[in-house]
Amino acid sequence: MQAKHLALPALALATLLSGCVGTGPNTQQGAVSGAALGALAGAIIGNNSGSHNGAAGALIGATAGAIAGGTLGNSADHQNGTVYGYAAEPAPVAYRRTVVVEGPPPTPAPPQSAETVGPAPSPNAVWIPGYWDYNGSGYTWAAGHWEIPPPSSQSYVAAHWENRGGTYVFVRGFWQ
After folding, report:
1. Cα dist. 97→1, 58, 75 in Å?
2. 83, 105, 121: which is the final residue of a domain?
């Protein structure tokens, strides 16, 4: 089987596996991208080796690429505060939060000094006001800042507490 015929099944397998429980958006994108690039690189290396075995190289490259890409993407998901759990839907969902507690701790009073809003860095930048960020043991002030919305985003959801079946979850602000 030629390498070009293995690239599509390898990519399909990586896409299927990237939807497993515990995956966030960066994990999925990393696994699929890594598989595609790994299959291509493996096919080229396998074909150019003395054995001309591009098919095996593509399969090995796709597997290694999916694992490496998924691992890097998962690390990015965790750094962004993405965690995994079950919502009302039967399938697992990824959502952003910092901590789960029995009840939300009282929020401190706003800082005494007013925030200074400087000029926007670009015409499409949106001002995100400062808020008290909960880190699991207490609050820290997150100063207001300008953000450029990610592509395909329509609105910004400010940081807030959510009651999820009697358990409170602090959800950091995010674009949707």
Report:
1. 46, 38, 15
2. 83
Read off the DSSP letter of residue 41.
H
pLDDT tens for 36-52 read 777 667 667 766 766 66
The kind and range of the H/E element at 175 are: strand 174-175
pTM across the whole model = 0.42
Domain count of the chain? Answer: 2
| Burial class for 31, CB neighbours closer than 10 Å (0-12, 13-18, 19+) | buried
What are the pLDDT digits (tens) for 93-124?
555 544 555 677 888 887 777 888 999 999 99
Closest among 128, 117, 126 to 148, alpha carbons compared: 126
Amino acid at 134: Y
